[in-house]
Every structure is written in C-alpha cells, then in structure tokens.
TrEMBL record:
Its EC number is 6.1.1.11. It comes from Candidatus Colwellbacteria bacterium CG_4_9_14_0_2_um_filter_50_12. PROSITE patterns: AA_TRNA_LIGASE_II. GO terms for biological process: seryl-tRNA aminoacylation. It is found in: Cytoplasm. Residues 30-64 form a coiled coil. This is Serine--tRNA ligase. The keyword RNA-binding does not apply. It catalyses: tRNA(Ser) + L-serine + ATP = L-seryl-tRNA(Ser) + AMP + diphosphate + H(+); tRNA(Sec) + L-serine + ATP = L-seryl-tRNA(Sec) + AMP + diphosphate + H(+).
Length: 442
C-alpha cells in the first residue's frame, strides 16, 4: 500500500508501473474516488462544525423564538449529515478497495516483461552434471529407495499429498538444520513462528490480492472452525494457515515503532508452509515439486527507509542462499524478475533456480524480494530516525532453503548408476551416512 499523497504526485510513473506489472487498475478511477471522498469528508466536517455552533446558539438563546430557529437549523444540518455520511462510507470503501491494488514502482534495473519467460539470467554457478547412465527423476528414486510414498500420501492427504520416510526424513530435516545453522552464523535470529495466523498478518504481507481473502485467487487455506477465547466464547477472528513464515515474522512487529539504531533487524523463521496452489492447476502434478504443505527456512529483514541500503541487504540475502547451493554442490542460476512476473508490492526481486537433471529443467528454489515500505504501511511498522522523525520501515524477505525442492535437487544431482544417493558433505552430520541406499556410515 502506498501513501495517497505520493500517488497524487507520481501519477505518470504509477500508470507505467501498473501497465508493466499487468495490474487491473484504473488509476484515474482511484484518483476520482479519492477526490469524491475528500470532498464529502470536507462537507461533513463543515456540517459538524455548523452543528456545534447551533448547539451553542441553543444554549445561549434568550427567547423561545431564537431557540426554535436554532433547533430547526440543527435538524436541517442533521438531515444533511444523515444523507452525506452513507455516501462518504460508500466512496471511502471504493477508495480503499482500489488502493490495495496500487503497486510499488519497480526498481530502474528491473527488466520490463510480461511473464517468467522474460526474466533475466544474471548469474550462473556450477556445471550441469553429465551422467553415463539415464538419470531418474525424484519420483523413481524416492520409490526405489523407500524414502517417498506418493500413493499413500494421496490416499491420506489427497492430491499432492506425500509421505517422506526413512533416510528421506533425515535428509530433509538435515537440509533444514543446515540452513538454520547457516542463517544463525550470518547473524539472523532464529524463530519458530505461528503457522496459524489472523487475517491482518496475511493482508499486511500482501498475500491477499484484495482487501479480504478470496479462495478463488488467494493461494492459502482458511480454517473453517473457530477457537475459543478465554471467556469461553467462540473467537470472531478469521484464522489462516501461512504459505511461508514471512507473514508471521513481519506481523511480529505490527503496530510498533522501532529505533533506527536497532535496524536492520534480521530474522530467520522455520515453519511448515501450506499453499492451496489454486493458481497452479495442471502444473507439476507429479512428485513433490509443487505440494500443499512443506517445510522452509525463511529470511526476513526490517530495515531503515534507504533504497540503496535495502538493495544491498537484498543482495546479501540472495548471496547467502547462493552460498548454500554451492556448499550443497547444486548448479544454480540467479534470475532477475521482470515486471510482469512481480506481485504489486515488490520493488526488486530475484529467484534462484537449481538444475534438476531427472526432470531436465531449471526449477525455482528461492525468491528474494524488496518491498520498500509497501508492507510496513499495511502492518503499521515505523521507526524513529536520528532526527526524531517517524518513518515507515522497509521490509525484505528471501527463501533460505525450501525442503521439497532442495530435496529433489539433491536426489537427482547426487544419484549413482547403482541407484543410491550420495549425501552432500555438509549434510552428512545430519543424515549420519555418506550414501542413501548404501551401507557407508559417517
């Protein structure tokens, strides 16, 4: 969400951003709604001021005639207010609905494009592995090694359900522990945040496309049942399952005013993540590449309102993820996201993609985003700068490592001709062996 004063002063740039990001928003309609609500509010305030003056006149009236005249005028004012206030409420509701779609103007170096096909590769590390045998995908490998059971997963969990078993559990948890240990060593404070959150946390972080949850377009789950308050009454709060730790981590600071000397705040969160994948119908229907629940380590940074410093922080976050890919021995590339593949609030975004030889494709294994103050305005997170002025913080996030996709990348890149999986050196302490499917222990 942006400041309306900023919107009024940057109409041309915002119209370009709306076009380049492919957002269905008429900025002129928004500005018209803004003018209408401001005009109505001004008229209402004038009437209220007049009403107060008339109340004073009634109290000071010396004759019945003066009192009756003031009362009559007061009734007229009251009737006008009764007419204008619903109109203002309607105009303001329209304004607020349109306001949530206003995008952040993307960074100058963001590529202009319509879809992920227009994203720009800016860095590549490692060589795609050459096999002297036909490589298998993670589905075949997982079944043969008895570390994945997709059939039972679908039976119990439905479409995209899965079981991770035996050494697969040690490998997947090892990925998470390795990532968590790495993040702590880089100065990120660890958290295990709530995975069940109130509506404001998801709206504030930008997980709703509108003002409220819409199950037709928002890729998250709402809980159907209500819990009870301490009074024993059913809670009126709507609850949702998070799609990443980001909403919980950012909402931790909601409605707070921080101090500049405490910034940047660096946090990493471990959580189970839930996504309905409503917008991905028909995509990646086999295996565990695209699933409804998974584990992930997420990075979040709350920073001062400085574009250059926030971009450096974003580059730092992306570099840490790249470092982990390299230590895991996974070929990867860094993609700069184009305007048409960005969500409205993002100023600058990058994806990391690992090479999956079994699936013969590059696959997203992380995403780093700089939102500037777009999320902070929704969550009302400010800080006091060195001059004593209050400003909204800047907020950034990045996937440290996602469990299923890194799990897939390891299975497919480290498979052997005999069907075993070599365990990357940095994960051996967690898995307890050098090879899955073999007999070699650490």
């Amino acid at each position: 969400m942006l400041d309306i004063k900023y919107i009024r002063e940057h109409q041309d740039e915002l119209k370009t951003a709306i076009k380049n990001k492919g957002i269905a928003l008429d900025l002129d309609e928004l500005l018209g709604a803004d003018k209408e609500r401001v005009d109505l509010l001004r008229a209402i305030e004038q009437l209220k001021e007049e009403k107060n003056k008339l109340n004073d006149e009634i109290g000071r009236a010396k004759t019945d005639g003066e009192r009756k005249a003031a009362i009559s005028k007061g009734k007229e004012v009251k009737d006008k207010l009764a007419e204008l206030e619903p109109s203002f409420a309607e105009a303001n509701a329209k304004f607020e609905k349109l306001m949530v779609s206003v995008p952040t103007i993307p960074s100058p170096d963001t590529p202009i494009g319509k879809s992920d096909a227009d994203n720009k590769e800016i860095f590549r590390w490692g060589e795609q592995k050459k096999f002297d045998f036909k490589p298998k995908d993670h589905i075949e490998l997982g079944k043969a090694l008895d570390i994945l059971d997709l059939e039972k997963g679908a039976k119990v969990g439905g479409f995209r359900g899965y079981y991770v078993k035996n050494d697969g559990v040690l490998l997947m948890m090892g990925i998470m522990m390795y990532a968590l240990k790495k993040m702590v060593s880089k100065g990120y404070a660890p958290m295990i945040p709530p995975t069940l959150v109130k509506e404001f946390a998801l709206f504030g972080s930008g997980w709703f496309k509108g003002l409220e949850y819409d199950p037709e377009v928002d890729e998250i789950y709402q809980i159907a049942t209500s819990d009870k308050e301490t009074t024993g009454e059913l809670s009126k709060d709507k609850k949702f399952l998070i799609g990443t730790a980001e909403p919980s981590l950012l909402a931790y600071y909601s409605d707070e005013t921080l101090n500049e000397e405490d910034l940047p705040i660096k946090v990493c969160g471990y959580s189970q993540c839930y996504r309905s994948e409503i917008g991905s119908y028909g995509k990646d229907v086999k295996g565990i590449y695209r699933v409804h629940e998974f584990m992930k380590i997420e990075q979040v940074v709350v920073a001062e309102a400085d574009v250059e410093k926030s971009n450096k922080l974003q580059d730092e976050m992306t570099a840490i993820s790249g470092e982990m890919h390299e230590e895991l021995g996974l070929p990867y590339r860094r993609m700069q996201i184009c305007t048409g593949d960005m969500s409205p609030g993002k100023y600058r975004a990058f994806d990391l993609e690992a090479w999956l030889p079994g699936m013969n494709r590059w696959a997203e294994t992380g995403s780093a985003s700089n939102f500037l103050d777009w999320q902070a305005r929704r969550l009302n997170v400010k800080y006091v700068d060195k001059n004593g002025s209050k400003k909204y913080v800047y907020m950034l996030n990045n996937t440290a490592l996602p469990s299923p996709r890194i799990f897939i990348a390891i299975l497919e890149n480290y498979q052997t001709a005999k069907g075993t999986i070599k365990v990357p050196h940095v994960l051996q302490e967690y898995v307890g062996k050098k090879e899955i499917g073999g007999m070699v222990s650490v």
